[in-house]
Specification:
This protein has about 250 residues and is an alpha/beta fold. The chain has helices at about 10-25, 50-55, 60-75, 95-100, 125-135, 135-145, 150-160, 175-185, 190-205, 210-220, 225-235, and strands at about 35, 45, 80-85, 90, 105, 110-115, 150, 165.
Length: about 250
């Protein structure tokens, strides 16, 4: 993300560009992991572009917020693992974007918060639904009701991020840790990883019995794959597997 004059805030053009990028990622079978990062030092994403929002009438606001919600849903629905590298401020819609990712890594100095209530708003791009799944209902309510900002270490303690790291001189410590995490995922069987993500995401939406059925269906799709056969053969032959995503 590289909108320095607006601190990567989510304006109409920027959102359209993100939708286009997601479409390209979905259609590229070579993509194995997606890392969301900022090219603007000190900020991940400052949230919605409120200067642009102030020029909208009520109907336009409703339509745009719905589009933001759709954007976050598209990020969450990417078939491959996604990682948010939070090296600076992730506020409002910026944190909601990170919440739409599968994994989050933050610099200890990063600042995060669903600050909408401090602006007379409430989270409208999925934050009220995704934050409780990370930190629990009680903490999610406290963070949303107060609009409080927390740092990377606090976010890690709450379970909001998977990893926190000290910031470096270049200001990209979270990105570097996210790359390391991505490289841990890359050697694994691509189709199995995709099915694992699908089983978790869909299973969270239903009761445990239905979730087990979803897991069974995902597992059944993986059984005839060449990668599963390769994994078994590599185990027998005591060598590293060579997965091809088929």
């Amino acid at each position: 993300m590289n909108r320095p004059h607006a601190r990567n805030s989510l304006g109409k053009v920027f959102v359209n560009e993100l939708f286009s990028a997601l479409e390209q990622l979905r259609s590229d079978e070579k993509v194995r992991v997606v890392v969301f990062k900022s090219e603007v030092k000190g900020v991940f994403c400052a949230g919605a572009d409120l200067k642009e929002r102030a020029k909208m009438d009520d109907a336009e606001v409703g339509h745009f917020v719905k589009r933001l919600r759709n954007l976050m849903d598209e990020i969450a629905a990417l078939p491959v693992p996604t990682i948010a590298a939070i090296d600076g401020y992730a506020l409002g819609g910026g944190l909601e974007l990170a919440l739409a990712c599968d994994l989050r890594v933050a610099a200890s100095s990063a600042k995060m918060g669903l600050i909408e209530t401090t602006r007379g708003l409430l989270p409208g791009a999925g934050g009220t639904q995704r934050l409780p799944r990370c930190v629990g209902i009680g903490l999610a309510k406290e963070l949303i009701f107060t609009g409080r900002q927390i740092d990377g270490q606090q976010a890690f303690s709450m379970g909001l991020v998977n990893h926190t790291v000290p910031q470096n001189n270049e200001g990209d410590a979270a990105y570097q840790r996210a790359l390391t995490l991505a490289k841990e995922i890359l050697p694994q069987a691509p189709f199995a990883v995709k099915m694992g993500k699908l089983a978790i995401n869909r299973g969270m939406e239903v009761d445990i019995a239905s979730g087990m059925a979803i897991e069974g269906m995902c597992y059944a799709q993986n059984i005839p794959t060449r990668d599963r056969q390769e994994g078994m053969a590599a185990f027998r032959e005591k060598r590293p597997p060579q997965f091809i995503g088929r």
